[in-house]
From TrEMBL:
It is a multi-pass membrane protein. GO terms for biological process: oligopeptide export from mitochondrion; potassium ion transport. Its main location: mitochondrion. GO terms for cellular component: mitochondrial inner membrane. This is Mitochondrial potassium channel ATP-binding subunit. Belongs to the ABC transporter superfamily. ABCB family. Multidrug resistance exporter (TC 3.A.1.201) subfamily. SUPFAM superfamilies: ABC transporter transmembrane region, P-loop containing nucleoside triphosphate hydrolases. Residues 448-685 form the ABC transporter domain. The chain crosses the membrane at residues 117-136, 175-196, 272-292. It is found in: Mitochondrion inner membrane.
Length: 690
């Protein structure tokens, strides 16, 4: 009666709760289901928390609590889904992840990483195997000690004199094994730690070097957060997994093999029964491994999505603050983190189910050993010490096999992480920086030509930026590029720096195709770039300027700063040139950062100077100082100016209007005004706006 009453009350509450929700659900979108799930979860928790006097009703409620707790992860999955999704940024990131090909780790990559530390690996393996063999020997010596003690007890019961010295040899051997086991455990853990840390350092350096050498097209398609994740999180995951998998895997394998031999020595009949479980564990482990590997990859991909959301929020913090979007960004990040947590929970549950099932099965085997051993003991086929040794050894096998689930889960995570690292580390750059020739300084003429250039960005192959574009920049002249936004002005500078390869045609510098020139020489000695948004590093002003010429003296740095109109404001700082500018130069104003960037470019005295809208983001006073510095810097150099404000390029020797995939007009300021073409229209439009 009480069971029925409890069921009726619970059913009535649930039906009262669900019925109006279902009626509402029929009239609205199915996406309201998360609300129903959340309400059901709250009702289940409230329902099972009520107390009853009768113990069997309390047990029934506790069973309900267990069922509801098992259902919570599923309900939580729905809670993570937002009903009103206003921001699809995470969905776009996730779609890119799903479209990515799953990386695979080649054994040759792993061997190449391990080869320099093969000696450490052999020492670690030897120590781990010896430790495992000692673990196998300890139960046998323990059985000898128990037999000796049992003999003393029998002698005492028979009234014979007791000789405690008979225990000493067995006890001494056992203590010696314990000390040797401790020393070898220290050795293999230390050797693996040294090897793992050095491998991780090598892998990080290899990945970092390769990332620095990759083409700009690669960076156009990747996010900074993803690169940072692979360089830090994935390498750390691989290192930790490698150390644990090798140490525990070797110990497990050696202990199972050694224990099998010991069991055969003790009782071949019982060994056949005990060892019959190993193929079952291996088969189930192989099947579970496929599923867990998939879950691991999904969980890591979702973590990368959450990291990308956070990186974008931090990288655009001013925009987030300006639009008061802190709560939206926090909600979006929370949603993605919760999804990652749910996937990690699923992975943990999968490993837990396998480990629990393995332990249950193997504990059943131990019970079987107890039963069989007691039968053999009663018939005199086994001594008490042999039975104890058999039990301890069988339990060691049980622990070793149950540890396989943990090792397998860890190894899968490490394997996936290593595959993600080597996916980028093995990319071969299409444009190499260290190949090609260098033109001697006395023979170099800074003339630039673009011949029949066709180009499309690798991320937008269907959109042609240029088609048969031709342009010549004479030596020592100032050539300005102008035109509507999005027509490819900055792309011309990128092709000159060889950040990208043209799909057709060629770019020449000093009469040679840039494909034949050494890019390190071209970018470090020949071309100086000053962009619209100067990027400074989190170090001193001195080091930021010296970045243009690492071997420059302090005097050379200051001379470059004077040319850039930067020396005056720098010397006003209490620490002068040792003033740290903060991340991305946050401690300096826009004009100050631009003048530091100009000094950095002038320090290497480049014969070719690129000014990519260098004054467009400055106030009037700062623009005046920067323009004075730029006019001083342009003297005697070949200069390519990219400008949006046409008033800044009126004195250029040649003005080129970029339009419709080519050079639409070309001439000086007066010539182009007389033509009353596209340049004239741009000047009139800007004058009207001003």
């Amino acid at each position: 009666m009480l069971h029925a009453l409890a069921l009726n009350r619970g059913s009535l509450r649930l039906s009262q709760l669900v019925r109006p929700q279902l009626r509402y659900l029929q009239k609205s979108s199915i996406r309201q289901f998360p609300k129903v799930a959340g309400s059901l979860k709250e009702e289940l928790l409230r329902w099972v928390s009520q107390g009853f006097r009768k113990s069997h009703i309390r047990s029934f409620r506790l069973a309900g609590l267990g069922i509801s707790l098992c259902a919570l992860p599923g309900l939580r999955r729905y809670d993570c889904k937002s009903v009103h999704v206003t921001n699809r940024r995470a969905e776009h990131i996730k779609r890119e992840r799903l479209n990515e090909e799953e990386p695979a780790l080649a054994l040759s990559d792993l061997w190449g990483l391990m080869k320099p530390y093969l000696g450490w690996f052999i020492l670690a393996c030897a120590s781990a195997i010896l430790t495992a063999l000692l673990n196998v020997e300890i139960p046998i010596r323990l059985g000898e000690l128990i037999n000796a003690i049992a003999g003393i007890i029998r002698d005492q019961g028979a009234g014979h004199p007791i000789d405690i010295a008979v225990v000493q040899p067995a006890a001494t051997r056992l203590i010696s094994l314990y000390f040797a086991q401790a020393v070898l455990t220290f050795c293999y853990i230390s050797f693996l730690s040294v090897m793992g840390e050095r491998m991780a350092a090598d892998l990080r350096v290899k990945l970092f070097d390769r990332l620095l050498s990759l083409d700009m097209a690669f960076y156009d398609a990747q996010k900074t957060g993803e690169l940072s994740s692979r360089l830090n999180l994935d390498v750390h995951e691989f290192k930790s997994s490698f150390k644990m998998s090798v140490s525990q895997g070797l110990k497990t394998a050696a202990q199972v093999a050694g224990c099998f031999i010991s069991l055969l020595r003790l009782s071949p009949q019982m060994t056949a029964i005990t060892m019959g479980c190993i193929p079952v564990v291996i088969l189930v482990g192989t099947l579970c491994g496929t599923l867990l590997r998939s879950l691991s990859r999904r969980a890591q991909a979702q973590q990368a999505v959450a990291s990308a959301v956070a990186d974008e929020a931090f990288g655009n913090i001013r925009t987030v603050r300006a639009f008061a979007m802190e709560k939206e960004e926090s909600g979006l990040y929370k949603k993605e983190v919760q999804k990652a947590a749910v996937m990690q929970e699923q992975l943990g549950m999968g490993i837990g189910v396998f480990q629990a099932g393995t332990n249950l099965f193997l504990n059943g085997v131990i019970l079987g050993v107890l039963y069989g051993g007691s039968q053999l003991l009663s018939t005199g086929d086994m001594s008490p010490g042999e039975l104890m040794s058999f039990l301890v050894t069988a339990q060691m096998i049980q622990k070793s096999l149950s540890q396989l689930s943990v090792v397998m889960g860890t190894a899968l995570k490490g394997w996936t992480a290593a595959a993600r690292v080597f996916q980028f580390a093995n990319i071969v750059p299409l444009i190499r920086n260290d190949d090609g020739v260098c033109i001697p300084h006395h023979a170099f003429v800074p003339v630039i030509t673009f011949e029949n250039i066709g180009f499309s960005y690798p991320t937008r192959p269907g959109h042609a930026v240029f088609e048969n574009m031709n342009l010549e920049i004479p030596a020592g002249k100032v050539v300005a590029l102008c035109g509507p936004s999005g027509e490819g002005k900055s792309t011309i500078a990128a092709l000159l720096e060889r950040f990208y390869e043209p799909t057709s045609g060629r770019v020449t510098v000093g009469g040679k195709d840039v494909k034949d020139l050494n890019l390190e020489w071209l970018r470090s000695r020949v071309i100086g770039l000053i962009s619209q948004e100067p990027v400074l590093f989190h170090t001193s002003i001195l080091e930021n300027i010296r970045y243009g010429k690492p071997g420059a003296t302090d005097e050379e740095v200051r001379e470059a700063a004077k040319l850039a109109n930067a020396d005056d404001f720098v010397m006003k700082f209490p620490q002068g040139y040792n003033t740290v500018v903060g991340e991305r130069g946050a401690q300096l104003s826009g004009g100050q950062k631009q003048r530091v960037a100009i000094a950095r470019a002038l320090l290497k005295s480049p014969p070719i100077l690129i000014l990519d809208e260098a004054t467009s983001a400055l106030d009037v006073e700062s623009e005046k100082l920067v323009r004075e510095a730029l006019e001083r810097a342009m003297g005697g150099r070949t200069v390519l100016v990219i400008a949006h404000r046409l008033s800044t390029i009126q004195n250029a020797d040649i003005i080129c209007v970029v339009k419709n995939g080519g050079i639409a007009e070309q001439g000086n300021h007066r010539e182009l005004l007389r033509k009353k073409g596209l340049y004239y229209q741009l000047v009139q439009a800007q004058a009207a706006n001003d």
